[in-house]
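Lecture notes, part 5. Sequence design as translation. It can be helpful to think of inverse folding as translation between two languages: the language of shapes and the language of residues. The source text, in structure tokens, appears below.
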């Protein structure tokens, strides 16, 4: 039965989109007239009932925070990585490189402007060309919750975070008696998509264990024109946690994780053939210590990434010249860190959080231009950079009354970096910077479930590995970008969540940002001896502004509608040009049905044309190609059936009308042998998927 469904879903290409819709519903035994649903507002499901399909966005829990269920099925169906899950949240985009491992972009900001934490651990990739951004090592289905903190409105989760912070989190639910919990899912889809997730927990009032495993694979997908895109991948991940809970207020947990895989890329001359990661973490949490000390939590962690890319394992090689040799790059990165924080009750109206965190990174690299003659495994690794940061932070919440409060925070980061390359003007040099950050925010609960906030934040970001060391980028005046100035962002954030009545809820968040010494990657300033452009690192002045709007309306007890809008505009003040790599206006409209048993939903995504670009300029993840993009609309549907409250079968068709389109910030296509080269990497065409979820609690 499983094989029959897989073949039918993956290979059936109906001549008519309408016929395809009816065929899929009847394949599942669902009437397209009686069925319908998928998405109500997230987080409004009954206890033990599996959440509906996420197709527009989770509602903001407060004006500048979004919380979403990491295990809920999503439309369009994401790749099994963190970036694709984030793109379902308004304001997020993804720079596509292939079938997986895209770079997440929030409000036009990419790279280390967006802090990514996995269960408290800061993750950084190894590839100098961003083949493995942090989200490549995050498997969202193995987490319980994704929390997005917008703007520089928190100082408690690491340095930088000028655009925001994303927390992939696992929940802990205390055990009152011996019991077992589990979650599992299977998904099959077009282009050979095949995913499995298993998350099991067992424990009692004193001990617990949790084991999670995920695997995902997909063949090359086809765009709307039927052209095959070099995009196949396979990824797996495993996590084990052991915990001790001697009393209801104390927890000690040790966890270990491992993952690996491979991925083909349509935007470059190499593919990723190894993404090995291992990590270890020890956490301690103690609550209700005294009338003064509400909570103390501590964590220490270790992570090691060993990444291999080559030009022959997943593609054909050119027949002639040096490009025909088997070439391999093998970077690795070791990360260690800790965090210690405490919550202090300074009175009935005042809560103070104090903490310290630290992170050290060691990056190494080895390469070969001819694997047959000089295998990379026998070449010694060479250090090229180390980065160390110690951060001190405090956040104060002061309640002015029962309905309004002031929240503020201060942070100081003490950075040290060393250039360990050979042959550059900065080789062997060490630089040190002390960078302050802070914010102040006013929040007002002006009615039941309605909140307004306005905050001013300032964040100073140390230049990261990709801006200073990677690919030996020069500055405008030197052969090395190691001395690039820190980036300084001052941003105003205003937001509101307004529950008009039981049927209608509105949410909005807008921002205005002034960035001094914005770090720009510019390929228009220099060329090499062969006349090819060289990426130069520059500091410029930049301005961005925009925001996100959301609406949720309950048409009836079963029917719900939603809409979201995301917009950002940027300017390069130094060059008097548009700021590069800014996505266009993005709107989503949904209509959903859920009667407790049957589910169905539809999503219409409309994206405007992007005529504001600056060719050859951008960030560490990509540069503007230099051609305007046309707008597009994509329509998707899904349906489902709850066999029980804890068993759910869902299915969907993404890009129902087989639209051929590419995102404005997508990478340009590379001339991969055997594939058609496109200006930008096109998104998948019509895509069928079928998913089964099971929850035991």
């Amino acid at each position: 039965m499983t094989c029959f469904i897989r073949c039918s879903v993956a290979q059936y290409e109906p001549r008519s989109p309408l016929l395809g819709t009816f065929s899929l519903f009847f394949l599942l035994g669902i009437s397209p007239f009686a069925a319908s649903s998928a998405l109500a507002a997230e987080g409004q499901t009954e206890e033990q009932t599996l959440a509906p399909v996420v197709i527009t966005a989770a509602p903001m829990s407060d004006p500048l925070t979004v919380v979403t269920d990491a295990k809920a099925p999503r439309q369009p169906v994401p790749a099994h990585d963190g970036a694709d899950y984030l793109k379902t949240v308004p304001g997020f985009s993804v720079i596509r490189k292939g079938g997986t491992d895209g770079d997440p972009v929030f409000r036009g900001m990419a790279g280390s402007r967006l802090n990514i934490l996995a269960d408290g651990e800061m993750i950084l990739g190894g590839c100098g060309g961003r083949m493995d951004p942090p989200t490549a090592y995050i498997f969202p289905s193995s987490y319980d919750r994704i929390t997005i903190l917008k703007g520089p409105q928190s100082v408690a989760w690491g340095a930088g975070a000028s655009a925001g912070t994303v927390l992939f989190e696992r929940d802990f639910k205390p055990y009152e008696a011996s019991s077992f919990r589990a979650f599992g899912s299977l998904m099959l889809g077009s282009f050979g998509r095949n995913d499995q997730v298993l998350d099991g927990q067992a424990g009692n009032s004193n001990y617990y264990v949790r084991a999670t495993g995920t695997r995902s694979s997909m063949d090359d997908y086809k765009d709307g024109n039927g052209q095959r895109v070099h995009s196949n991948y396979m990824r797996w991940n495993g996590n084990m946690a052991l915990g001790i809970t001697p009393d209801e207020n104390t927890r000690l947990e040790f966890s270990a994780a491992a993952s690996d895989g491979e991925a083909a890329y349509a935007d470059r001359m190499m593919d990723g053939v190894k993404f090995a990661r291992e990590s270890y973490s020890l956490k301690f949490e103690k609550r209700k210590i005294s009338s003064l000390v509400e909570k103390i939590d501590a964590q220490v962690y270790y992570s090691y990434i060993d990444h291999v890319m080559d030009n022959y394992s997943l593609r054909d090689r050119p027949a002639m010249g040096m490009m025909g040799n088997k070439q391999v790059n093998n970077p690795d990165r070791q990360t260690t860190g800790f965090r210690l924080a405490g919550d202090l009750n300074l009175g009935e109206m005042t809560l103070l959080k104090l903490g310290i965190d630290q992170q050290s990174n060691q990056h190494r690299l080895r390469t070969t231009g001819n694997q047959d003659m000089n295998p990379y495994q026998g070449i010694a690794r060479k250090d090229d950079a180390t980065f160390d940061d110690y951060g001190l932070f405090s956040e104060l919440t002061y309640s002015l009354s029962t309905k309004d409060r002031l929240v503020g925070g201060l942070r100081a980061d003490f950075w040290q970096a060393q250039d360990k390359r050979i042959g550059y003007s900065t080789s062997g040099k060490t630089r040190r910077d002390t960078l302050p950050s802070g914010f102040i925010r006013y929040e007002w609960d002006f009615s039941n479930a309605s909140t307004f906030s306005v905050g001013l934040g300032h964040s100073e970001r140390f230049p990261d590995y990709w801006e200073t060391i990677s690919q030996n980028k020069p500055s405008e005046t030197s052969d090395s970008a190691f001395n690039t100035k820190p980036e300084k962002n001052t941003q105003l954030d205003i937001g509101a969540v307004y529950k008009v009545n039981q049927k209608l809820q509105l949410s909005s968040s807008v921002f205005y940002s002034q960035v001094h010494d914005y770090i720009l990657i510019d390929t228009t300033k220099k060329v090499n001896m062969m006349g090819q452009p060289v990426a130069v690192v520059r500091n410029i002045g930049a301005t961005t502004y925009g925001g996100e709007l959301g609406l949720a309306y309950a048409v009836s007890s079963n029917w719900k509608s939603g809409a979201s809008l995301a917009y950002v505009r940027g300017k390069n003040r130094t060059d008097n040009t548009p700021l590069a790599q800014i996505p266009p206006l993005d709107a989503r409209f949904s209509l959903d049905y859920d009667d407790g048993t049957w589910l169905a939903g539809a999503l219409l995504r409309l994206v405007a044309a992007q005529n504001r670009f600056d060719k050859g300029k951008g960030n560490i993840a990509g540069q503007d190609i230099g051609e305007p993009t046309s707008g597009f609309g994509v329509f998707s549907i899904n349906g489902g059936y709850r066999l029980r409250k804890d068993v759910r079968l869902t299915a969907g068709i993404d890009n129902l009308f087989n639209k051929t389109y590419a995102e404005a910030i997508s990478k340009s296509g590379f001339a991969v042998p055997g594939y058609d080269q496109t200006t930008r990497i096109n998104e998948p065409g019509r895509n069928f998927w079928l998913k089964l979820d099971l929850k035991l609690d």
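The translated text above is only one of many valid answers, since several sequences can fold into similar shapes. Helices lie at 2-11, 17-27, 82-86, 465-468.
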